[in-house]
Design brief:
The protein is of the alpha+beta class. The chain has nine helices and eleven strands. The strands form two sheets. A seven-stranded mixed β-sheet has the order 6-8-5-9-7-10-11, with helices on both faces. Strands 1-4-2-3 form a four-stranded mixed β-sheet, with helices on one face. A hairpin with a 5-residue loop joins strand 10 and strand 11. Helix 2 packs parallel to helix 3, helix 2 runs parallel beside helix 6 and helix 4 packs across helix 8. The N and C termini lie far apart (40 Å).
Length: 317
């Protein structure tokens, strides 16, 4: 069985062109570009809570980094560096090698250097810290939304939660739809290019990790506004899925890592052009109002008010 340091040397010691000093010392050394702010985020993935014990380690390696890059995308930051800390029940080289393969595939795709971390023995728990940068004063903060803003969401939120329901045998999806949903769940694609492009277009943004309505609530709380959401303007539900479950997954499922953002109505044509350039659907699904800060009113296909009991995932709820 390999030692901790042999595992690090073999699987996590790679060149770090963007760092002054990478793995191998007490600290990494990095320098932001002149005139740039650093954006720093961390996310933990715990076996049994965030992923199932039999999850493909390569896909898990990709996702462990991707969920952090999604946070950077929501701020409009360009990813640059990441650190990995993890506990493992055993030093299984095949598992670690496959995990590292997925991790570095994501890092290479988005131009990230993995510059250090830590390992220990314990229940499987993976914690990534990602660092990005953006020009000073350009961050897409949650407190920037304004009354009158349009509300937008990217991609197709809800697929990841449908995939989880399929894995847990709470529903049965046809093979093609199941494959698509499981890809969304197990190998999410952080919307980095969208986040960078939204600087100067959007007033506020957030990535959807706990559920569309739950994460929207964070913008409303920080910005002191309310929202009206129209389900008829959200992405169409998969025709082969149970519509009640699919709608619940779309509004409250989480794990999508799409971006939700607010922007003034005069930016609609620019956002339509951006959607075409990125080949990424952007859905204008509601708007913000100034009364009753934090309130979310959801309207059904026929414009009728909907009572939504569950808005998203809460680790302690």
């Amino acid at each position: 069985m390999s030692s901790e340091f042999e595992l690090i040397r073999r699987y996590f010691s790679r060149p770090t062109a963007q760092a002054i000093l990478g793995p191998g010392d007490d600290c990494a050394l990095v320098a932001p570009s002149p005139g740039m702010n650093l954006a720093i985020t961390t996310d933990m993935l715990v076996e049994g809570t965030h992923f199932l014990p039999n999850t493909d380690p390569s896909r898990l390696g990709w996702k462990a980094l991707a969920v952090n890059l999604s946070d950077l995308a929501a701020m409009g930051a360009r990813p640059r560096w990441a650190l990995l800390a993890g506990s493992l029940p055993e030093a299984c080289e095949s598992w670690v090698g496959s995990f590292a393969q997925g991790l570095y595939a994501c890092a290479t795709r988005f131009g990230v250097d993995v510059i250090g971390g830590d390992t220990t023995r314990g229940p499987r728990n993976l914690c990534l810290t990602a660092i990005g940068e953006l020009p000073a004063g350009t961050a897409l903060r949650r407190d920037g939304a304004l009354p009158g803003d349009d509300l937008w969401v990217s991609g197709q939120p809800g697929l990841a939660a449908l995939g989880l329901a399929h894995l847990q045998a709470r529903t049965r999806l046809p093979d093609e739809l199941a494959d698509s949903c499981l890809a969304s769940l197990l190998r999410p694609f952080p919307r980095v290019e969208l986040g960078l492009s939204l600087r100067g277009l959007a007033h506020a943004a957030i990535d959807i990790s706990d559920g569309l309505l739950a994460d929207l609530g964070h913008i409303l709380e920080r910005s002191g506004v309310a929202a009206e959401v129209f389900v008829a303007q959200l992405p169409p539900l998969p025709a082969q899925a149970d519509p009640v479950l699919a709608r619940r997954c779309q509004l409250a499922g989480g794990d999508d890592y799409e971006l939700m953002f607010s922007a003034p109505p005069e930016k609609r044509s620019e956002l339509a052009a951006l959607a075409r350039r990125l080949a990424l659907p952007l859905w204008r699904c509601g708007h913000l109002v100034g009364s009753s800060p934090g309130r979310i009113d959801v309207f059904g296909e026929e414009g009728q008010p909907l009572a939504i009991e569950q808005r998203g995932y809460d680790h302690f709820g």
